[in-house]
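In keeping with the milestone schedule agreed at the kick-off meeting, the structural modelling team has produced records for the first pair of proteins. Each record is given below as a sequence line and a C-alpha cell line. The laboratory manager (R.T.) confirmed that both were archived under the project's standard naming scheme.
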Amino acid sequence: MSLTSATSQQDRNANSPTDVSGWVPVVEYFFPGTTVGAADITVPQPVSQIGYETPGIIENFNHETRASGLFGDNLYWTAGVYYKDTQFAADSASIYYPDPDATGAGAGHSTNIVLTTEATAVFGEMSYEFTDNWEATVGLRQYWDTRTSSASGISFGKLRDFVDSVDNDSLIGRFVLKYAYNDNTTIYGSASQGFRSGGVQSAETEQTSGGLVPNTFDPEDLWTYELGLKGRAMGNRLKYEFATYFSDYDNIQIVEPVLVLSAVVNGGTAEIKGFEAALSYDVTDNLFFNVAYSYNDSALTTATAQHDKGEPFDGVPQNSTLGISGDYSFNWTGNVRGHLRVDYFDRDGSEANSKDGSFSILNQSYEGLRQLNARVGWLVNDWSLYLYAENLTNDDRQLRRPYRGAINYVIQKPRSVGMTVRWKL
C-alpha cells in the first residue's frame, strides 16, 4: 500500500479595475434624470461613465490524503479524503464620471463583501482485470460543499445587509471499461457524472429582485459519455489517441434578466458533442513533434429567458482547437546542452447572446486566439538560461468585447521577449 498526502496554502492580494459604463441604465433606473441616457436630464453633469474597483484578499487552503494498493493480482484500489477552505474578502467601490456625486447619493456602489467556500469529499475507486484483455473501473465521490456570501454597504443609494448560503451535497460516479486489442492498442468506453456547484445571488440582485428569483441557485448536473482508442506504433515512436464524446446537461445554470439586473437560475437542458485527436512522434531520441486537435459543438436544447433553443454556450469556442509543437535537444559545445522548442496554438472564436433588453449590447462575437511561441536554452549542470519569445507574429485579437453591462475589451497579449535563469538546489 502507498500513502500520499498533499497540502497547499495560498494568500494573494488582487485588484480588478473595470470600466462598467454599460451599467449606466441601472443608475438611471435608480436615479432618473441623472445620466446621459435620460429623456429629461436634471443635473449639470450627468453620468456618462462608471469605473469599478475590487481590491481583495484571497485565501485558499487545500489538503488531500490518498491511499492505494492491490488486492491479490487483479484488483487495484484507491481511496482518500479532500478538504478545501477558501475566502475572498473585498471592499469594492464604483465611481461616477464626470461628477462622482451626480446622483446626490455619493458612490454608486460601496460595499464590503466576503465569499467563503468550505468543501469536503471522500472518494474511492477500484479497477479489476477480468482477463489479460478486459479491465473495468468503478469510482464514487461524495461531496459536501457550503458556499456563503455576506455583504454590507451602500448600493445605488440604499443601505444593504445581506447574508445567505447554499449547500451543494452530491454523490457522483465514474465507470470505465477497457479492452486491450493487442500489446499496443487499447479501446475504452466511459460514463462519468459531474456537477457545477450552486451559489448565492449577488447582493444587488437580491436587493432589487423583489422576490422574483430565489436568493440561491442549485448545482448543475451532467453525464459525459466517451469512446476512445489509444495506441503505439513504429517501434513506440508514434503514439496516438482518438476519442469522441457526448455531454448531457440538466438543471443548467442560466442568466436571466431581473428588472435592470440579472440573476443565475436553474432551468433548461443542453448538450455538447465532439471529438479529440492527438499524435506524438519521436523522430529521434532528441527530436519529437506533438499535434492535438479537438472539435466541439455545444447547443442549448431548450429555450430560456436569455437564449433561443439551438444557440451555443456563451464563451465556448466554436468549433475547433489546434495545437502543434516541436522539441529538440542537442549540445552547443562540450558539456553545454541545448534545447529548442516551438509551439503554435489556434482556437476558434466564440459568441454570447442575450435577450435582456435593459442592456444595449445583447449579442457579441469574440475572436479566437492564434499564437506562435519559441524558446531556446543553454543548460550546464544545475544551471539553465532560456531566451523566449511569445506571440512572435504580434497578433492583437479581441478575445473579449463589450457585452451587456461590461464595455471593456480583452486584447491578446502583444509580442513578448525575455530571458529566464534557473538554478537547481
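The second protein of the pair:
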Amino acid sequence: MSLPLPSDCTIEKKPDLRFVALRTWVEGFLAAAIMKVEALPKNAGFRRYFRLFLSDGSTLLAVDSPCNETDNNPGFVKWAHIFQSLGVRVPRVIASDLMNGFLLVEDLGRHTLEKALQEGRVEQLYQRALEALVLLQSHSANPSLKTLPLFDKTIRRAKLANCQTWFIEKLLNVDINRQTQSLLNQFFDTVVEKLESQPITVIHEDYQCRNLMVLDNQEIAMLDFQGAFQGAVAYDAASLLWDCYVEWPMERVEKWLHYYYEALCRHAIIQPVGMGLFKTWFYASVLQRHLKNTFIFARKYLRDEEAVYLDYLPRTAGYVLSALSQCDDLKDAHEWWEKIVMPSLDHTLMSIKSP
C-alpha cells in the first residue's frame, strides 16, 4: 500500500528518500497494513520518529536515525535488550537495520513526563520517576552493565571545554584573557574533582522530562538511553530535578532530593553519607550537566541554525549560577558567571531577537 508522505517529509518539494526507504524496510516486518503515518516533533538529536497506525488498530514507531556517533544506534539496540531483561521499562526493539540507521520500536504513547506534569499529579510523577531511576541504578553491579563506558575525568573535562568554546566564546563572544582562562580552568577542574569523589552507578545521561514516558498504568519508561554510562550517582537526579524544560521551586526540589537520597540508601546503592554531602554531590552534578547543556544549545543554534534552543539558555545558565551559589569553594567562578556570563547572555539574546 503506497501512502502519501507526512507533511514534513519533503525536501524542497522533492520526496524524502530516507523516509521512503524506511517505510519500505518497515513494511517487510508488518503483518498488518500501514493506514496512516504521523511525523513526531523533533528533539535535540538527529533522529526522526514516525508513528505508524496499522490496520489492526495498533501503533508502532519507525525511527530514521542516521548513523553517527551522537545517536549511537548499536548502543540503543544493545541496552534496550539488556535493560528490558533487568526489568527496566524501555521500548521494545522489534527490528533494526544498523547499516542504514532504521529502527522499528514499540510505541509507548503520547504522554511524556513533560506533558503529564501539565495535567497535575506532580508529586506522584516525580516520585515514580525517581523510583525508576533507583531501579536502574540498583543494577549497577550487574556484569552486563559493567561493560558500559565510564564517564571519566577526560570525558567530563572535554564537555566543560566545549562550554567555553561554543557558549562562552562563540555565542557570547566573551574575551578570554590569561586571568579568565585560569579562573575557568580552576572552575572546571573543581567540578570534575567533585564528580570524581562520588560513588559510581549506571547513569542514563539524559534523564529529563522529554525522555521519560508515563504509560497508561502510570509506570515510567525511559527513552534515549543509548548514551548510558557508568558515572556519578547524582548526575541523573540533577538532570531530572533541575530540568532544561521545566523548573520547580527549590523547596519542592529539596523534598524530592531527600526522597531520592533515602531511596538510594534503602537499596544500598550508596552509604548513608548524610544530606549535606549528598547535596554537594548534587550541585556538582548540576554544574556538569548544565555547563554541558549551555554548549549543546549554543551549538544547536550556531551550527545547526535551530534558534528554538536559545529559549532554554537562560534557564540552563541560571541553573549554573544557582548551583555555584551553593559552592563555597567556587566563589570566584560564581562572581564571574554572575557579572560576565549572565549579562552577556541577556545582551546576546536581545541582539539576536531584535529586528
